[in-house]
Amino acid sequence: xxxxxxxxxxxxxxxxxARVTDPAGVRFIDQTGKSVIDMNVVRWAGKPLSxxxxxxxxxAxxxxxxxxxxxxxIDRAGxxxxxxxxxxxxxxxxxxxxVEVGGPPxxxxxxxxxxxxxxxxxxxxxxxxxxxxLASFTSxxxxxxxxxxxxxxxxxxxxxFVGGFSEGLCPVKRAERWAYIDRAGxExxxxxxxxxxxxxxxxxxxxxxxxxxxxxxxxDGMPAFGAYFRRADRFVDxxxxxxxxxxxxxxxxxxxRLVYQSExxxxxxx
Length: 270
Description:
Distance between the termini: 34 Å
CATH class of the domain at 163-270: Mainly Beta
Order of helices and strands: EEEEEEEEEEEEEEEEEEEEEEEEEEEE
Helix content: under 10%
Structural class: mainly beta
Protein backbone atom coordinates (compact mmCIF):
# COMPACT_ATOMS: atom_id res chain seq x y z
CA UNK A 1 0.00 0.00 0.00
CA UNK A 2 1.60 3.24 -1.17
CA UNK A 3 -1.11 5.71 -0.19
CA UNK A 4 -3.58 4.61 2.54
CA UNK A 5 -7.30 4.43 1.87
CA UNK A 6 -8.53 7.86 2.91
CA UNK A 7 -10.32 9.52 -0.02
CA UNK A 8 -13.95 9.59 -1.09
CA UNK A 9 -12.74 9.61 -4.70
CA UNK A 10 -9.34 9.22 -6.36
CA UNK A 11 -8.38 9.56 -10.05
CA UNK A 12 -5.40 8.05 -11.84
CA UNK A 13 -1.98 9.71 -11.68
CA UNK A 14 -0.98 11.87 -14.62
CA UNK A 15 2.39 13.62 -14.79
CA UNK A 16 2.99 12.72 -11.16
CA UNK A 17 -0.24 14.23 -9.81
CA ALA A 18 -3.67 12.79 -9.04
CA ARG A 19 -7.02 14.39 -8.24
CA VAL A 20 -8.56 13.30 -4.95
CA THR A 21 -11.69 14.27 -3.04
CA ASP A 22 -12.37 14.03 0.68
CA PRO A 23 -14.51 16.01 3.16
CA ALA A 24 -11.99 18.88 2.94
CA GLY A 25 -12.59 19.25 -0.78
CA VAL A 26 -10.71 18.57 -4.01
CA ARG A 27 -6.95 18.71 -4.39
CA PHE A 28 -4.03 17.27 -6.33
CA ILE A 29 -1.56 15.01 -4.51
CA ASP A 30 1.86 13.70 -5.49
CA GLN A 31 2.91 10.05 -5.44
CA THR A 32 3.78 10.22 -1.74
CA GLY A 33 0.24 11.36 -0.92
CA LYS A 34 1.33 14.93 -0.16
CA SER A 35 -1.13 17.66 -1.10
CA VAL A 36 0.37 19.79 -3.90
CA ILE A 37 -2.59 21.90 -5.07
CA ASP A 38 -5.52 22.67 -2.77
CA MET A 39 -8.38 23.71 -5.02
CA ASN A 40 -10.03 25.46 -2.06
CA VAL A 41 -7.53 28.31 -2.43
CA VAL A 42 -7.43 28.48 -6.24
CA ARG A 43 -9.56 31.44 -7.34
CA TRP A 44 -10.41 33.34 -10.51
CA ALA A 45 -12.12 36.73 -10.19
CA GLY A 46 -12.82 35.75 -6.59
CA LYS A 47 -14.62 32.58 -7.64
CA PRO A 48 -13.53 29.02 -6.79
CA LEU A 49 -12.39 26.71 -9.55
CA SER A 50 -12.93 22.99 -9.99
CA UNK A 51 -10.54 20.67 -11.91
CA UNK A 52 -12.20 18.95 -14.83
CA UNK A 53 -9.43 16.71 -16.12
CA UNK A 54 -5.92 15.62 -15.15
CA UNK A 55 -2.70 17.45 -15.93
CA UNK A 56 -1.36 17.19 -19.47
CA UNK A 57 1.84 18.96 -20.51
CA UNK A 58 1.83 20.87 -17.24
CA UNK A 59 -1.70 22.29 -17.54
CA ALA A 60 -5.09 21.07 -16.33
CA UNK A 61 -8.56 22.21 -17.46
CA UNK A 62 -10.67 23.84 -14.75
CA UNK A 63 -14.18 25.25 -14.63
CA UNK A 64 -16.15 27.61 -12.41
CA UNK A 65 -18.73 25.62 -10.41
CA UNK A 66 -21.19 28.51 -10.67
CA UNK A 67 -20.95 28.33 -14.47
CA UNK A 68 -19.30 25.06 -15.60
CA UNK A 69 -19.42 26.33 -19.18
CA UNK A 70 -16.58 28.75 -18.36
CA UNK A 71 -13.40 26.71 -18.57
CA UNK A 72 -9.70 27.57 -18.55
CA UNK A 73 -6.39 26.07 -17.36
CA ILE A 74 -4.18 26.07 -14.25
CA ASP A 75 -0.49 25.19 -14.02
CA ARG A 76 1.20 22.80 -11.59
CA ALA A 77 1.56 25.59 -9.02
CA GLY A 78 -2.20 26.13 -8.98
CA UNK A 79 -1.95 29.45 -10.83
CA UNK A 80 -4.31 30.55 -13.60
CA UNK A 81 -2.45 29.90 -16.86
CA UNK A 82 -5.35 30.55 -19.27
CA UNK A 83 -8.40 32.39 -17.99
CA UNK A 84 -11.77 30.57 -18.01
CA UNK A 85 -13.45 31.86 -21.15
CA UNK A 86 -14.33 28.71 -23.08
CA UNK A 87 -17.53 26.68 -23.13
CA UNK A 88 -15.41 23.51 -23.07
CA UNK A 89 -11.71 22.67 -22.89
CA UNK A 90 -9.71 19.50 -23.49
CA UNK A 91 -6.22 18.60 -22.32
CA UNK A 92 -3.07 19.75 -24.13
CA UNK A 93 -1.31 17.51 -26.65
CA UNK A 94 1.85 18.57 -28.44
CA UNK A 95 1.50 22.17 -27.23
CA UNK A 96 -2.10 22.60 -28.39
CA UNK A 97 -5.57 22.09 -26.91
CA UNK A 98 -9.02 21.91 -28.40
CA VAL A 99 -11.59 24.31 -26.94
CA GLU A 100 -15.20 25.12 -27.75
CA VAL A 101 -17.10 28.39 -27.63
CA GLY A 102 -20.75 29.34 -27.78
CA GLY A 103 -23.75 27.29 -26.77
CA PRO A 104 -25.98 24.75 -28.48
CA PRO A 105 -26.89 24.60 -31.25
CA UNK A 106 -24.14 27.00 -32.36
CA UNK A 107 -21.17 25.66 -30.37
CA UNK A 108 -17.99 25.51 -32.44
CA UNK A 109 -14.48 24.24 -31.81
CA UNK A 110 -11.00 25.69 -32.31
CA UNK A 111 -7.39 25.01 -31.30
CA UNK A 112 -5.34 27.19 -28.89
CA UNK A 113 -1.65 27.24 -28.00
CA UNK A 114 -0.22 27.36 -24.48
CA UNK A 115 -0.76 31.13 -24.31
CA UNK A 116 -4.47 30.68 -25.01
CA UNK A 117 -4.19 32.15 -28.53
CA UNK A 118 -6.27 30.56 -31.28
CA UNK A 119 -4.18 28.94 -34.00
CA UNK A 120 -7.33 27.44 -35.54
CA UNK A 121 -10.31 29.80 -35.11
CA UNK A 122 -13.42 28.39 -33.41
CA UNK A 123 -15.52 27.99 -36.53
CA UNK A 124 -15.85 24.21 -36.90
CA UNK A 125 -18.81 22.17 -35.66
CA UNK A 126 -16.84 18.92 -35.65
CA UNK A 127 -13.15 19.41 -34.88
CA UNK A 128 -10.78 16.79 -33.51
CA UNK A 129 -7.91 17.18 -31.07
CA UNK A 130 -4.60 18.48 -32.40
CA UNK A 131 -2.33 15.46 -32.65
CA UNK A 132 1.19 15.77 -33.99
CA UNK A 133 0.36 19.02 -35.74
CA LEU A 134 -2.88 17.78 -37.34
CA ALA A 135 -6.52 18.11 -36.29
CA SER A 136 -9.44 16.46 -38.06
CA PHE A 137 -12.27 18.65 -39.32
CA THR A 138 -15.56 18.23 -41.18
CA SER A 139 -16.28 20.02 -44.44
CA UNK A 140 -19.64 21.38 -45.52
CA UNK A 141 -20.57 18.12 -47.24
CA UNK A 142 -19.85 16.08 -44.11
CA UNK A 143 -16.53 14.63 -45.25
CA UNK A 144 -13.54 14.47 -42.89
CA UNK A 145 -10.00 15.72 -43.44
CA UNK A 146 -7.16 17.36 -41.47
CA UNK A 147 -5.97 20.90 -40.73
CA UNK A 148 -2.45 21.83 -39.66
CA UNK A 149 -1.50 24.27 -36.90
CA UNK A 150 -1.53 27.14 -39.43
CA UNK A 151 -5.21 26.48 -40.17
CA UNK A 152 -4.37 25.10 -43.60
CA UNK A 153 -5.93 21.97 -45.11
CA UNK A 154 -3.19 19.36 -44.81
CA UNK A 155 -5.26 16.34 -45.90
CA UNK A 156 -8.29 16.87 -48.08
CA UNK A 157 -11.74 16.07 -46.57
CA UNK A 158 -12.65 12.95 -48.53
CA UNK A 159 -13.27 10.43 -45.72
CA UNK A 160 -16.45 9.27 -44.02
CA PHE A 161 -14.53 8.55 -40.80
CA VAL A 162 -11.10 9.40 -39.47
CA GLY A 163 -9.48 8.30 -36.23
CA GLY A 164 -6.44 9.85 -34.61
CA PHE A 165 -2.82 9.69 -35.69
CA SER A 166 -0.71 7.34 -33.60
CA GLU A 167 2.78 6.14 -34.45
CA GLY A 168 2.54 8.02 -37.73
CA LEU A 169 -0.62 6.34 -39.05
CA CYS A 170 -4.34 7.11 -38.85
CA PRO A 171 -7.33 4.80 -39.52
CA VAL A 172 -9.77 6.16 -42.11
CA LYS A 173 -12.93 4.94 -43.81
CA ARG A 174 -13.90 5.85 -47.35
CA ALA A 175 -16.70 4.28 -49.39
CA GLU A 176 -17.03 1.36 -46.95
CA ARG A 177 -13.31 0.53 -47.09
CA TRP A 178 -10.93 0.93 -44.16
CA ALA A 179 -7.30 1.92 -44.54
CA TYR A 180 -4.40 3.63 -42.76
CA ILE A 181 -2.92 6.89 -44.05
CA ASP A 182 0.33 8.64 -43.15
CA ARG A 183 0.68 12.33 -42.26
CA ALA A 184 1.03 13.23 -45.92
CA GLY A 185 -2.38 11.68 -46.63
CA UNK A 186 -0.92 8.69 -48.47
CA GLU A 187 -2.79 5.40 -48.06
CA UNK A 188 -0.12 3.00 -46.85
CA UNK A 189 -2.30 0.06 -45.69
CA UNK A 190 -5.61 -1.10 -47.17
CA UNK A 191 -7.59 -3.44 -44.93
CA UNK A 192 -9.79 -6.33 -46.14
CA UNK A 193 -13.30 -5.55 -47.36
CA UNK A 194 -14.86 -7.35 -44.37
CA UNK A 195 -13.27 -4.88 -41.92
CA UNK A 196 -15.90 -3.17 -39.79
CA UNK A 197 -13.65 -0.94 -37.68
CA UNK A 198 -9.95 -0.11 -37.34
CA UNK A 199 -8.28 1.32 -34.23
CA UNK A 200 -5.15 3.39 -33.80
CA UNK A 201 -1.71 1.82 -33.52
CA UNK A 202 -0.07 1.27 -30.16
CA UNK A 203 3.28 -0.46 -29.73
CA UNK A 204 3.25 -1.39 -33.42
CA UNK A 205 -0.13 -3.16 -33.36
CA UNK A 206 -3.72 -2.02 -33.98
CA UNK A 207 -7.00 -3.71 -33.14
CA UNK A 208 -9.53 -4.24 -35.95
CA UNK A 209 -13.02 -5.71 -36.11
CA UNK A 210 -14.17 -7.97 -38.93
CA UNK A 211 -16.89 -10.54 -39.56
CA UNK A 212 -14.80 -13.05 -37.57
CA UNK A 213 -14.41 -10.83 -34.50
CA UNK A 214 -11.63 -8.63 -33.14
CA UNK A 215 -7.96 -9.20 -33.96
CA UNK A 216 -4.69 -7.28 -34.33
CA UNK A 217 -2.68 -6.20 -37.36
CA UNK A 218 0.90 -5.02 -37.81
CA UNK A 219 1.93 -1.78 -39.51
CA ASP A 220 2.05 -3.58 -42.87
CA GLY A 221 -1.59 -4.64 -42.45
CA MET A 222 -0.74 -8.31 -41.90
CA PRO A 223 -2.28 -10.21 -38.95
CA ALA A 224 -0.18 -10.04 -35.79
CA PHE A 225 -1.41 -13.50 -34.75
CA GLY A 226 -4.33 -15.77 -35.58
CA ALA A 227 -6.55 -15.32 -32.53
CA TYR A 228 -9.95 -13.57 -32.64
CA PHE A 229 -11.82 -12.06 -29.68
CA ARG A 230 -15.24 -10.75 -28.79
CA ARG A 231 -13.61 -7.37 -28.12
CA ALA A 232 -10.04 -6.02 -28.02
CA ASP A 233 -8.40 -2.85 -26.65
CA ARG A 234 -5.08 -1.31 -27.62
CA PHE A 235 -1.75 -2.50 -26.24
CA VAL A 236 -0.25 -0.86 -23.16
CA ASP A 237 3.11 -2.01 -21.77
CA UNK A 238 3.09 -5.14 -23.91
CA UNK A 239 -0.42 -6.31 -22.99
CA UNK A 240 -3.89 -5.77 -24.44
CA UNK A 241 -7.20 -6.36 -22.68
CA UNK A 242 -9.58 -8.64 -24.60
CA UNK A 243 -13.03 -10.10 -24.09
CA UNK A 244 -13.07 -13.83 -24.73
CA UNK A 245 -15.89 -16.18 -25.71
CA UNK A 246 -18.29 -16.50 -22.82
CA UNK A 247 -17.53 -12.88 -21.89
CA UNK A 248 -14.47 -13.62 -19.81
CA UNK A 249 -11.93 -10.79 -19.65
CA UNK A 250 -8.28 -11.52 -20.32
CA UNK A 251 -4.94 -10.02 -21.33
CA UNK A 252 -2.84 -11.16 -24.28
CA UNK A 253 0.78 -10.39 -25.06
CA UNK A 254 2.18 -9.31 -28.43
CA UNK A 255 2.43 -12.93 -29.57
CA UNK A 256 -1.28 -13.46 -28.88
CA ARG A 257 -0.68 -15.66 -25.84
CA LEU A 258 -3.27 -15.35 -23.10
CA VAL A 259 -1.41 -14.37 -19.92
CA TYR A 260 -4.44 -13.73 -17.70
CA GLN A 261 -8.13 -14.67 -17.68
CA SER A 262 -10.80 -13.58 -15.23
CA GLU A 263 -12.35 -16.24 -13.06
CA UNK A 264 -15.89 -15.08 -13.71
CA UNK A 265 -17.90 -13.82 -16.67
CA UNK A 266 -18.98 -10.22 -17.19
CA UNK A 267 -22.53 -10.30 -18.61
CA UNK A 268 -22.51 -6.54 -19.33
CA UNK A 269 -19.68 -6.88 -21.84
CA UNK A 270 -20.67 -7.06 -25.47
